[in-house]
Amino acid sequence: MKAGSFSLVLALVGVAAAMTPPGLIPSNTENMTVFFNTSSLATNGIAIAQSAAKNTPTLALDKSLTGTTFMVLMVDPDAGNVGGNGSSAFLHWMQDGFTSSSKSVTVGNKTVFALENTENVVPIAAYLPPGPPTGQTHRYTQYLVDTTGVKGFTVSPSVANSTMTRVAFNMQDFVKQANLTIISANFWKTTGGT
Ligand SMILES: *[C@@H]1O[C@H](CO)[C@@H](O)[C@H](O)[C@H]1NC(C)=O
Ligand SMILES: *[C@@H]1O[C@H](CO)[C@@H](O)[C@H](O)[C@H]1NC(C)=O
Ligand SMILES: *[C@@H]1O[C@H](CO)[C@@H](O)[C@H](O)[C@H]1NC(C)=O
Ligand SMILES: *[C@@H]1O[C@H](CO)[C@@H](O)[C@H](O)[C@H]1NC(C)=O
Ligand SMILES: *[C@@H]1O[C@H](CO)[C@@H](O)[C@H](O)[C@H]1NC(C)=O
Ligand SMILES: *[C@@H]1O[C@H](CO)[C@@H](O)[C@H](O)[C@H]1NC(C)=O
């Protein structure tokens, strides 16, 4: 499939009962590396200053997955309810059209293959940098979805709505309704005012 923006197809789907507990990585079939620059990683819950997270991070995998297309979502499960179960997260970023570069890059001491939006696919939700209230620490969680061969996804109106408004975004419902598979996840922490 040629990488391209999804259209949200609306349909009535039953409400999902399951919920991913906070911080839980649902499945991890690929190791994902996330970084803002090649001098340090933004992985495994490390603290990243608000000032260091202004621009989109780079996501990368341990190997180049030629022929695979990816979508990245970033959510703040602590929006409105710090330490909550993430059922009402804020959607910070939703971008499809990523492919795996065949050229490696070294970050810290790790050699990885970056994901690139070479066709300049317009984001479904453009990256909004972390901006928690001063003194509050939130977990910025990135999910990587394999979209190879996927032409669109069918979600309920309320879930589709929350991808537009970004508020009350339920990742578990979204993934379940859209029938998507998360292949990797990561998070860092940012404290407001840093
Ligand atoms: C998650 O938290 C919300 C708000 O506190 C609550 O309504 C909901 O039942 C919780 N869901 C689960 C699965 O615990
Ligand atoms: C992810 O990295 C860990 C540690 O280097 C390694 O043990 C594991 O096999 C890797 N998983 C995959 C799917 O490559
Ligand atoms: C690189 O990114 C880290 C956050 O991962 C930040 O703390 C550091 O200041 C950045 N370094 C440069 C040179 O921009
Ligand atoms: C890279 O490896 C060297 C030698 O093992 C170590 O001293 C250094 O701290 C490592 N750097 C990072 C960013 O992990
Ligand atoms: C969509 O969002 C708008 C504005 O927040 C709200 O008024 C409307 O009820 C929402 N629709 C659904 C189906 O959730
Ligand atoms: C969900 O996706 C799987 C493959 O990832 C497919 O086999 C299955 O038919 C899909 N289910 C629905 C309801 O679209």
From TrEMBL:
Signal sequence bounds: 1-18
Keywords of this entry: Signal
The GO terms describing molecular function are: peptidase inhibitor activity; phospholipid binding
Name the source's superkingdom: Eukaryota
**UniProt-listed GO biological process terms:** regulation of proteolysis; regulation of Ras protein signal transduction
Q: Which Pfam families match?
A: PBP
Q: CDD domains under this entry?
A: PEBP_euk
Keyword Transferase, does the record have it?
no
Q: Which InterPro entries match?
A: PEBP, PEBP-like_sf, PEBP_euk
List the PANTHER family.
PHOSPHATIDYLETHANOLAMINE-BINDING PROTEIN (PTHR11362)
Official protein name in the record: PEBP-like protein
Record organism: Coleophoma cylindrospora
The taxonomic lineage of its organism, from the top, reads: Eukaryota, Fungi, Dikarya, Ascomycota, Pezizomycotina
